[in-house]
What we know:
Distance between the termini: 56 Å
Helix content: 55-70%
Number of strands: 0
Strand content: under 5%
Number of helices: 11
Number of domains: 2
Structural class: mainly alpha
Order of helices and strands: HHHHHHHHHHH
Shape: globular
Amino acid sequence: xxxxxxxxxxxxxxxxxxxxxxxxxxxxxxxxxxxxxxxxxxxxxxxxxxxxxxxxxxxxxxxxxxxxxxxxxxxxxxxxxxxxxxxxxxxxxxxxxxxxxxxxxxxxxxxxxxxxxxxxxxxxxxxxxxxxxxxxxxxxxxxxxxxxxxxxxxxxxxxxxxxxxxxxxxxxxxxxxxxxxxxxxxxxxxxxxxxxxxxxxxx
Length: 203
C-alpha cells in the first residue's frame, strides 16, 4: 500500500468501523460481557461513552479506587472520599450513599416519577421503561439518567482532585440545566412549540 495509508488489521478488507472496535474489545476482554447500549441522540457523546463503559464492567472500565487497586496502580485506601463509608466502587458511588440517593430522588421527582430505591447501577438503567409513559417522556428520562450518572461521576472527581465537596442542590440544578441545554439544542422546534422545558415533562 502507498505511504500515508492506514488500514484496520482486524478486518480482512482493512476497513475501520465502530462495530469492528466493539468486537475487538469483546475479544480482548473475554471475561467481560458485551452489553448493548441504545445511545441517546440528544445527550453529548461523552455521556453515551461513559454509560457504555459503565455497562461494560464498572470494576475494569471506570477508574474507581477499587479498580485502580486491582490494577496495582493505587494505594490500599479504597474508602469512598464522598462519605468515608464504603468502598470507592461503582454501585456505591452511583447508588449507595446519601449524596447519590438524594440526587436520584430529586431528579426523579422532577421527572414525575416516584422515589426509587436502587441498590445497584443496573437498577437505574431501565427506569425509563416504566409502563404508562409516552415515547417522548421515555426518551427524555433515558437521557436524563445518563446526565445524572455523568454528573455524579464529576462530583466524585471534583472531591478527589479539587477537594470540592459536592452539594446535592447545586448538582441537581446543573443536571436540569444541562438537560435543557442539550435537549433543546437537538429539538429546538419541539421545545419552543411546547412552551418550555417544564411542559415537556408533562408529555
